[in-house]
Amino acid sequence: MSIRAWLARRQIRRAFRGKATRDFAPDQLVKLFGGLLAKAEQMAPALPASVKVTPVEGEGFRGEWVEAPGALPARSILHFHGGGYVWGGIGGFRDFAMRLSAAAKAKVFLLQYRVAPEHPCPAAVEDAVAAWKALAMGGAPVMLGGDSAGGGLAVALVQALAAEGIKGPAALGLIAPWVDLGLGGSTFAGNAESDVMLDPRGIGRAAELYRGGLAASDPRCSPLFGRMDTMPPTLLQVDAGEILLDDSRRLAAKITEAGGKAQLDIWKGLFHDWPMVARLVPEGRKAIVDMARHYEAHWDGGETT
Questions:
Q1: Closest by alpha carbon to 167, among 130, 127, 126, 136?
Q2: Which of the following is catalytic: 64, 81, 101, 272?
Q3: Whole-angstrom Cα distance, residue 246 to residue 39?
Q4: Which among 15, 110, 112, 223 could bridge 156 via Cys, Cβ 3.0 to 4.6 Å?
């Protein structure tokens, strides 16, 4: 663990899991988490002038392209941001998208999908399908990624596309995906104290808000219980101390059992979604490079134009 990662962990625990939060009700934790994410988004540094950001308003979806210098026209990555399905927007993820764009030599599309409680599941899945149909219509391979709740949404998208007989992504990159809203993973309780960011009570409430009237086992909100035989080669990155560790372990196992390929990289001494603060911690930059290499292996012919 780098000194920067150690310092980041310390600050994150103070902000998200401080002593005062132990007496918070679940709804208070949801409000606290949302406020902290909003503050982080406001404090996010501006991107360099050389990075091109293009807002998009499509049919049934909206978002923006982030394109670093050197991105190849034929390379596209669709990435879904985290936020427990109830918090945040794409503003706090532009730095990550810029770094991924540079490392993968691809333009990255950040989808501003609808969130709960105003728009419970399957609204986000519908937005994801609409975005995919528009972005992948050119025929060139498109990579798909997501972090935290966005990782779960990415898996749900692959399953939704398969149900419609639509070609899915060439590869999938997931950072601590949340794929079981029934909270059935062993580390949900086992890592409740070691997770410096996520409080199980707040996450449980977020799950209720996103599920709406759906059962916790419905694959649209809990894709861990959906079909896995159409999953593309998948890289999963997760920290050993977070409550969502077992979601990644179980997802990787299910993909493998269904005949697919899944690489599970378990990091130590970090925190949930650490690649999103790659500007602060070197481990975040390393994780992004690893993700870019995963995508690199699946571009058709390794095109350079």
A1: 136
A2: 272
A3: 29
A4: 223
The catalytic position among 67, 242, 248, 283 is 242
Q: How far apart are CA 79 and CA 82, in angstroms?
A: 10
296 a catalytic residue: no
The torsion region of residue 28 among left (phi > 0), alpha (psi -120 to 50) and beta comes to alpha
pLDDT at 121 over 90: yes
Residue 304, in any domain of the structure: no
How many residues comprise the chain? 305
The predicted-structure confidence for 90-116, as pLDDT tens digits, reads as follows 999 999 999 999 999 999 999 999 999
Catalytic residue among 76, 148, 222, 248: 148
Mean residue pLDDT of the chain comes to 94
User: ω into residue 122 within 30 of 0, thus cis?
Assistant: yes
Residue 261 lies in a domain: yes
Range of the domain at 189: 3-299
Q: Report d(CA 99, CA 149) in Å as an integer.
A: 20
- Say if residues 277 and 8 touch (Cβ distance below 8 Å): yes
* 242 belongs to the catalytic site: yes
Cα–Cα distance measured from residue 197 to residue 71, given in angstroms and rounded to the nearest whole number: 33
Q: What is the domain-level CATH number for residue 31? A: 3.40.50.1820
Q: Which helix (H) or strand (E) holds 50?
A: none
For the chain, the domain total comes to 1
27-31, 97-101, 113-117, 141-145 — which is least confidently predicted?
27-31
Give residue 304's pLDDT: 35
